[in-house]
Amino acid sequence: MRSENGSTYRILALDVDGTLLDREGTLRPSTAAAVARAARAGIRPVLCTGRRYRRARPIAEQLRLDAPLVCNSGALVKDPSNHRTLWRADFEPDLLAELLTLFHAHDELPLSFTDRPPEGLDFLVARDPTGRPLYDDYLSRNRGHGEVDPHWPERIESGGHYHICTIGSRPDMLTFQSVIMAQLSGRVRTFVQKSPRYEGTMCEVLHHDASKWSALLHLAELWDVAPAEICAVGDDANDVPMLQGAGLGVAMGHAPADVLAAADHITGDHDNDGVAMVIDKILR
């Protein structure tokens, strides 16, 4: 339970897909039991996920967690007890306008996640269907949760946009990521990653100030927790900032090479109780 510098871990930051959940998207009883052991020992589990709030809440409920949820790869922090937004990293209107111009110039369709009450809709799209199979797979699996508004990209002055993405093949998304970073490096943060739930790969764009680590630091400040008192566990590109910043950054064994390189420690994979192994390590 003590870190290498002698401090006690007080926050256990846990990615969801590929970390807490196995390759089938299942929360294993052994993983849930380990998270409960950490909580009983005084280490506060915090879910830090690329999922939007609607899809993060059921995992927190399965684990019986009452802590705020870091959602949308760190662009949004929500309190599930009252659905209040604790922190959000919005794009400035001029930056968002430049970003949407790039989407249009490269024939990529933007999807903007929204921060609304639980009974509200989760994202904005200009059309549905789009005629693009990988994009339409995402829309069809989220039917009833998206607002179709052909003119939303023209009405951005009111703000509230914090997470923009597009969906396609991995090569196309990597190419578009390069385009974005060539134009907006230092102003935005991008991730190219694939959820096992969907056929397509996402190119996600956040404000440069947004990351799971930025969101965690906001909570740590509220709770008077030092960065050295945080243990973070993850497996993908959007986990790298928190693995590098935490007192103990742990990569899942199946993570890609760049994620493994960012970690202080490598645990087992998501099919072999990797999270439970980490918790056993820090509770010794």
Automatic annotation (TrEMBL):
Transmembrane segments: none annotated. One of its GO terms (molecular function) is phosphatase activity. GO terms for cellular component: cytosol. The keyword Hydrolase applies. Gene3D superfamilies: 3.30.1240.10, HAD superfamily/HAD-like. The keyword Cell membrane does not apply. Keywords: Hydrolase. It comes from the Bacteria. InterPro entries: Cof, HAD-like_sf, HAD-SF_hydro_IIB, HAD_sf. This is HAD-superfamily hydrolase, subfamily IIB. The lineage of its organism: Bacteria, Pseudomonadati, Planctomycetota, Planctomycetia, Isosphaerales.
